[in-house]
Specification:
By secondary structure, the protein is an all-alpha fold. It has 2 domains: 40 residues; 123 residues, no CATH class. It is built from 6 helices and no strands. Helix 2 crosses helix 5.
């Protein structure tokens, strides 16, 4: 009987080793599936939707109207050149892109960040500029008779605050769908 028991134990050990190998293989498979699932999950900032435009608009309104900073922006616009206004537009776009990059896009892996950040930032940037122009129109600082150069400068002097507000609202606005 001891020989029979020894053979039985060897069979059991062999079966246990076979089961362990099978479990290790399945665990490896599960880990690879989990890793694949994590890599395919969409980052909340990877899509641009209508809600993003709304968030950007609300943020731009708070950025510019919250402290009635546009009054000072209009006053400053009277004393700057078109060249400085152009610099303000470029600065505002750069701030928008940098703000988005350092606020979470570094974690986006499934898309080409180099191409997508400028697209998203441009949408937020243009939304902010439209909100600035609309705000200036509503408050009577520009109208259809205002010279284009003056509109250009007035929007430029208010663009940085609006872009900061719009970018903040976009980043902090919750889950992007």
């Amino acid at each position: 009987m001891p020989e029979n028991e020894l053979k039985q134990e060897k069979k059991i050990l062999a079966e246990e080793k076979r089961i362990e190998k099978m479990v290790k293989g399945e665990m490896g498979e599960l880990k690879s599936i989990e890793k694949e699932m994590k890599s395919t999950q969409s980052h909340p900032l990877a899509k641009i939707t209508y809600k993003d435009l709304v968030r950007g608009s609300i943020g731009a309104i708070f950025g510019i109207v919250g402290h009635f900073a546009f009054f000072y922006g209009v006053e400053i616009a009277e004393h700057i050149s078109v060249l400085r206004a152009t610099f303000l537009y470029i600065l505002s776009l750069a701030v928008c892109i940098l703000f988005m990059y350092y606020s979470g896009f570094r974690k986006v892996k499934e898309i080409k960040v180099i191409r997508f950040i400028p697209v998203r930032a441009t949408v937020i940037y243009l939304t902010a500029l439209v909100v600035v122009a609309a705000t200036l129109l509503v408050f009577g600082f520009i109208d259809i008779h205002t010279p284009l150069a003056e509109i250009y400068k007035k929007v430029a002097t208010n663009s940085l605050l609006a872009v900061l507000g719009a970018s903040t609202a976009d980043i902090l606005g919750g889950k992007h769908e």
